[in-house]
Amino acid sequence: MYTEKSFVLDDKADSRSEPVTVVVPKPKNGEAAQYRIPFNRPGLVGHELTYIADAILKGHSAGDGTYTKRCHRFLEKELGAAKVLLTTSCTHALELAALLLSIQPGDEVVVPSFTFVSTINAFVLRGATPVFVDVRPDTLNMDEALLPAAITTRTKAILPVHYAGVGCEMDFICETARRKGIPVVEDNAHGLFGRYKGKLLGTFGALATQSFHETKNVICGEGGALVVNDPSFSERAEIIREKGTDRARFYRGQVDKYTWVDVGSSYLPSDLLAAFLLAQLEKYHSIRETRRRVWHSYEGGLRRWAQKNQVALPIVPPHCEQSYHMFYMLMPSLRARQGLIAHLKRRGILAVFHYVPLHLSAMGLKFGYKPGDCPVTEDASDRLIRLPFFNDLSEEQQCEVIETVTQFEAH
User: Fold this and answer.
1) pTM (global) more than 0.85
2) Three-state SS sequence of the chain
3) CA 355 to CA 340: how far, in whole Å?
4) What is the DSSP letter of 355?
5) Do 236 and 263 meet the contact criterion of CB atoms below 8 Å apart?
6) Residue 409: how many CA atoms within 13 Å on its side-chain side?
7) CB count, 10 Å around CB of 402?
8) I need a labelling partner for 71 at 20 to 30 A (CA). Which of 153, 217, 338, 393 fits?
9) pLDDT per residue rounded down to tens, the chain (411 residues)
């Protein structure tokens, strides 16, 4: 039922050379999930267990330990950001962004309706009013053509979401924001290391947020990061993240004691999570290549079936380099989408839909929205299905998914 694995800490982890033994449970068939092929399954890609053991042996498992700092340096170097700060979730990174922008009751933020609730909830918590805009029918990203009309004198932030890791039209969005003097906060939960016109996603806005939830490409179970591209936010971001104290300045020797200097909360993840995350970040090139193969296998294996059944496959503009976060399809109708989900379920395969339009949620209706306000979002939400997609998805499993899908008649 259990097996012992011994790991030797490398020079990057510690100077010790003795092995660290970790007891790993052997999974039982059917123990983890009721589906033979789940929608998602987290996996190990490198030194995750070694680094976690080392963090414990170092005697610092709380926030901002050795591994947290190594993750910060890694992401700052790769993204070219002024500062990156790990958080307990992407939701908390968004809340941190709202605090940094001093969002107040009566302020408005522009956001696509087709996104996860955290994108806007972080700002509504500060009293902001959401201004929902529709998405493009090709990429399902914010329709930038609708942005100018959504901006008012009360607009205090624009929140583009890079859906499925495909970049929004950031040239137009950023130029519109610049002319109006409005900060852009990128929700890049899907898009780490994706690019728009050669530039990394998450590096366009004054601030950006990342997710390391178990469903993402690079994971640590739960976790996120705030990416600070505008250096003027760097010091205050540290303070808000550390419960409103100048503790970080104290540890750098800039003050002789630390105290409460601003609003804030505790957004620091455990160093155990950071240890797991660092091992994943070190392998992000191989993770991306694995996911690229899975994505293209789906696209190639389903193309003829999709054409025959009037199913739309993802569109990636030539100026975008996607992160290969997911593979989705737009079925011809809600009935066809639900039918395919049920068909796959009968074969032990879990496929799922995605966002329910936020403007039609209970909260969205309270803000005065109604059916028909974002027609593309409403239509896509009814028809979209996501296929199993994770780093450990085997070629045999994927072939079975493709074969099962192509046995389904959409009409």
Assistant:
1) yes
2) CEEEEEEECCCCCCCCCCEEEEEEECCCCCCCCCCCECCCCCCCCCCHHHHHHHHHHCCCCCCCCHHHHHHHHHHHHHHCCCEEEEECCHHHHHHHHHHHCCCCCCCEEEEECCCCHHHHHHHHCCCCEEEEECECCCCCCECHHHHHHHCCCCEEEECCECHHHCCCCHHHHHHHHHHHCCCEEEECCCCCCCEECCEECCCCCCEEEEECCCCCCCCCCCCEEEEECCHHHHHHHHHHHECCECHHHHHCCCCCCCCECCCCCECCCCHHHHHHHHHHHCCHHHHHHHHHHHHHHHHHHHHHHHHHCCCECCCCCCCEECCCCCCEEECCCHHHHHHHHHHHHHCCECCECCCCCHHHCHHHHHCCCCCCCCHHHHHHHHHEEECCCCCCCCHHHHHHHHHHHHCCCCC
3) 18
4) P
5) no
6) 1
7) 17
8) 393
9) 444 455 555 444 444 445 555 555 555 554 445 899 999 999 999 999 999 999 999 999 999 999 999 999 999 999 999 999 999 999 999 999 999 999 999 999 999 999 999 999 999 999 999 999 999 999 999 999 999 999 999 999 999 999 999 999 999 999 999 999 999 999 999 999 999 999 999 999 999 999 999 999 999 999 999 999 999 999 999 999 999 998 888 777 788 778 989 999 999 999 999 999 999 999 999 999 999 999 999 999 999 999 999 999 999 999 999 999 999 999 999 999 999 999 999 999 999 999 999 999 999 999 999 999 999 999 999 999 999 999 999 999 999 999 999 999 987
Q: Which residue type sits at 322? A: Q
- Residue carrying structure tokens 């696209």: 299
